[in-house]
Design brief:
The two termini are 41 Å apart. By secondary structure, this protein is an all-alpha fold. It is flat. The chain contains 13 helices and no strands. 70% of the residues lie in helices and 0% in strands. The chain has a domain of 193 residues: MetI-like fold (Orthogonal Bundle). The longest helix is centred in the middle third of the chain and has 37 residues.
């Protein structure tokens, strides 16, 4: 009787969970493209003081509306040209990435805390608590967001802090709806009543049984809301109700360049493309995280 060699342990047990996760991450094109693009933008934003060729606030009327380097009259001293008051466009673009990322992260954090708390409480306790929180969510959805944001900023005054607070207090509804639905699904799983049966407290159940199982949905919503907050800030800045000048916001750069649309279209095109790439990268990364970490794909 011929004896066959024993195969390696790796062949018997198959790939480890870490290997499977790495394969799925590197095999997901959207996740890789979004992650790399977002990492590059964060890199340039963090190193803006080092990479910027000029002060983003310094004005020079003698060099106003200089052409970018790809045009015939362009100069490498200002690779992306200058705006209507002579400020270097590349420097303002790099510092504008800082503002967009800061607003997106802070708004996602503030609205995420509010919406997740309401959604988890409503989905876990149900009954009258669910009815009250559902009414609050419905009330928020009935309020026109842009009009309220514009009215509040117009009354209080535009600043970076005001924009972050206003957006954070108005963008929690999607978190609440998704977290409520996800919590209701987890609440009916066997391990939650089992934890209650052995005497676990409600905070312990929420932190150890509910939250770890809804993190996937939370991360996806956070990426979507981060991109949404960046676009809304750009819209408010375009309307003159967002980040005040001379702060280098991409939305403000588009607003300042609209008067030169037919003569110097690159004043709008450059910050517009930057906004498009940033929002696309965040959305691709969020979709990739959803696909990679979804329980049904493990």
């Amino acid at each position: 009787m011929e004896l066959r060699p024993i195969p390696p342990v790796e062949e018997i047990l198959g790939p480890s969970p870490g290997q499977i996760l790495r394969r799925r991450i590197f095999g997901h094109k959207g996740f890789m493209i979004g992650g790399i693009a977002l990492a590059v933008i964060i890199f340039f934003a963090l190193l803006a003081p080092v990479l910027s060729p000029h002060d983003p606030y310094a004005q020079s009327l003698t060099t106003r509306l200089s052409k970018p380097f790809w045009q015939a009259e362009g100069k490498w001293s200002h690779p992306l040209g200058t705006d209507h008051v002579g400020r270097d466009y590349l420097s303002r673009l790099l510092y504008g990435a800082r503002i967009s990322l800061l607003i997106g992260f802070c708004v996602a954090l503030i609205s995420g805390v509010i919406g997740t708390a309401l959604g988890v409480v409503a989905g876990f306790f149900g009954g009258r608590v669910d009815m009250v929180i559902t009414f609050i969510i419905t009330l928020r959805l009935s309020i026109p967001f842009v009009l309220v944001a514009v009215a509040v900023v117009a009354m209080v005054g535009g600043s970076l802090k005001v924009v972050i607070i206003v957006l954070g207090l108005l963008l929690w509804n999607r978190y609440a709806v998704v977290m409520r639905s996800a919590t209701q699904q987890i609440r009916n799983q066997d391990y939650v009543p089992a934890a209650e049966a052995v005497g676990c407290s409600t905070p312990r159940i929420l932190l150890s049984e509910i939250m770890p199982n809804i993190v996937n949905s939370l991360v996806v919503v956070a990426t979507l809301e981060m991109a949404n907050a960046i676009l809304l800030e750009a819209a408010l800045s375009f309307l003159g109700m967002g980040v005040p000048p001379p702060m280098p916001s991409w939305g403000l750069m588009v607003s300042e360049g609209k008067d030169f649309l037919f003569f110097e279209p690159w004043l709008i095109t450059i910050p517009g493309i930057a906004l498009f790439v940033l929002v696309l990268a965040i959305n691709l990364l969020g979709d990739g995280i959803r696909d990679v970490t979804a329980p049904e794909n493990r």
